[in-house]
Amino acid sequence: MLSPILIRLFSFFLLMAAWAPCQAQTRPASLPNIVLIYMDDMGYGDVDAYGGIGYTTPNIDRLAAQGMRFTNFYSAQPICSASRAAILTGCYPNRIGFHGALMPHSPIGISGREETIAGMLKKKGYATAIIGKWHLGDARKFLPLQHGFDTYFGLPYSNDMWPVGYDGKPFKDTSSPRAKWPPLPLIDGNKVVRYIRTLDDQSMLTTWYTERAVQFINHHRTQPFFLYFAQSMVHVPLGVSDKFKGKSKQGLFGDVMMEIDWSVGQVMKALKENGMENNTLFIFTSDNGPWLTFGNHAGSAGALREGKATTWEGGQREPAIIRWPGRVPEGTVCNKLAANIDLLPTLAAVTGAPLPANKIDGVNILSLLKGDPGANPRDHLFYYYHLNSLEAVRQGPWKLILPHPYHSYEGQLPGKDGWPGRMHKDSTGLALYDLRRDPGERYDVKAAHPEVVTQLQQLAEEAREDLGDDLTGRKGKNRRPPGRL
Fold it and tell me: What is the DSSP letter of 132?
């Protein structure tokens, strides 16, 4: 007969054996951490792995070598607020009432009816943080902590939205609307903790952001987390710390890119030191193409046409690198069509999180990340800009340009050393480009492929029915309003 002590020990071990499987099924560590680094105004040709020259980006290149590099990855619109609304909600920004770049004291912002990636992942027990630029409304009700994020440290809008001129001096002309803007507020949570008043202050942004990002990683060793690291650089005015000043052969822009690469390296180092490297899905991309009018303070779109604020390829096709050890094949290149609106449904599939109740436009691209050779989850993409103008449609290698006016950088002398050059008004008629052979969009082939033109026009008509189109006077049936004060 067993003694009372042995009986109690036996019962204890039985209890532990029954308890352990339950714990294994619910352990947060079984879910991957997610790091999303979102650059500002970084062009398709601004990273070594995509052709950048005059400086090195070894950490970003290491991400590419250890993961998947996309060659046909798009931002849903070629400008700040709209692209950020898209990446966080999985929606074309015009579906949820967003366009352009919101100014300080904006009366609109992200609606509480829209679910962000952060809000979605919180349902699975994720800790959520945004470090850096928000730009979805600066009133308290629009700030990140009210939209799924536990932690926020950064600027509420672009770093040029302050009462300071291109020479770094406060505006003397008080009639200028910019002279009435407040100093740049650096926000921690919901509170302003300091103001960015000078170019020297701007030079510390990347360092401050990086320190807080690493701190967040270090504090979440036992809980899955989502870190949305939205850099303010390389948006003008450029700022770089003394660590990298004068280190590149491309002047201040190259110095800034080297510091950005250092920042990426610090995040990678923190993941490794905390034993998280192999259980982290790491995404690196940009919000829109380069602001070419700033010349040597702007990036490069590579061989693509035009840049930021246009729906030509240089405005919306972005570098994108995704690393997830053991899941995403190392050193691979994906040439299939994908977009930033696809990240939300993909992360839902990865984590088992429920999709938002409202209609979204993204598609799950997990099959691409796994390297499935026959995968093609995104059939087409609509290029909207301005308030609600449908300017182009892409399907496969074909891009149909719809007649529209635009502002062009071509034929204009760009600015220099922080001062902008000029753009000029231009327009285009109907045109068809084969992006596989002509990524620079120079050779209109619509006369040779009328059947492709017809197919893409049918897709455009579907978009107008759903989302509307200012260029043809269509309102659309399924647009939702933004949040309002």
Answer: E
